[in-house]
Amino acid sequence: MRKYFIFNLVLEIVKCVLCGRESSKPVCEICTKQIIMDYPFLIRRGLAVGDFEGNLEDEPEILFEKDIEKLNEMAKNALMGRDSNFLLLSRYAILFHERFSDILKNFEIEENYYLNLAKEFASRSEDSESKYLLAKIYMEEDDPEGAEKVMETIWKEKREYALLYGRSLVASGKWGRAIEIYNEMLGENKDDKEVWKLLAEALYSSGNYEDAERAYLRVLQMDKDDYEAWYLRGLCLKNMNKWGGALQSFQTAVRKNPKYKEAYEEILNILVERGMYSRALETLKKMKEEGFDVDERMKEIEGRMKGWTL
Ligand SMILES: [Zn+2]
Q: Model's pTM, two decimal places?
């Protein structure tokens, strides 16, 4: 059971390893063009050694060597305009983008080669799953509006589609629409903690701290140990100038997760701003016990306390 080892030559090579022409990459421009035509996934015998274990059809994570040949053959035919399993090809192109983008530096090729390949395949198919992949690619390319357009018509079909749709809306700052989507999802399943958190986040980002805080409370009813939700609820309260509640919420967050640096910082800010130095010092001592380097800050607070008592 040998795994593929992608060849990884040192750059600054002056000659193409395949034809000997001068080239800044291990494989020159002309050879790259040739390889893309015959092996669109770039991995082939001779450029990679060994084999993956698994089956092409039902396990996209793992590949046999013969499957790579099959995959290249399918892709080649698809790119020549023949009908194919575009969804499968697109999935693999995304997988290669995530896992094997490193090999691209050996070729005279653009950085987003696999992503563009995935896009090409996904856009050839009309089914929802391909559209979903296409939207994921748009997100990867930092084009949330492209993703949004694709997901607009299919988001109701599946929970994961709706989540991606919401994510695309949030990424382009369309909080109102994202909130609508999350509310609609909660109408279907009111115990979906992840969606409650997303709703809370969208509400918070839109400046509606009151409803955001209420949404975090819902999350905490479902899972009182969700320290992140305690922290985020604290931020909502802080934004509403409810300092006591905020302080309590941040303190619960660090009780649930004693390594939670951001929550400690919020606690310290509140205490120091209010001149509650001895409590600030207690917090710093607790941080020190947890391994944070706070000696300087302890000295500073002790200094302030001296000034205060004099
Ligand atoms: Zn060459």
A: 0.77
**What percentage of the chain has pLDDT greater than the value 70?**
87
- Which residues, at least 6 apart from 42, have a Cβ–Cβ distance to it below 8 Å? 35, 36, 96, 100, 103, 104, 107, 113
Sequence ranges of the domains in the chain: 1-125, 276-310
Q: How far is the CA of 109 from the centre of ligand 1 (A)?
A: 13
Q: How far away, in angstroms, is 19 Cα from ligand 1 center?
A: 4
Look at residue 186 and tell me whether its pLDDT is greater than 80. yes
- The tokens for 57 are 């059809």
Distance 37 CA to ligand 1 centre (A): 14
Distance 41 CA to ligand 1 centre (A): 18
| Average pLDDT score over the chain | 88
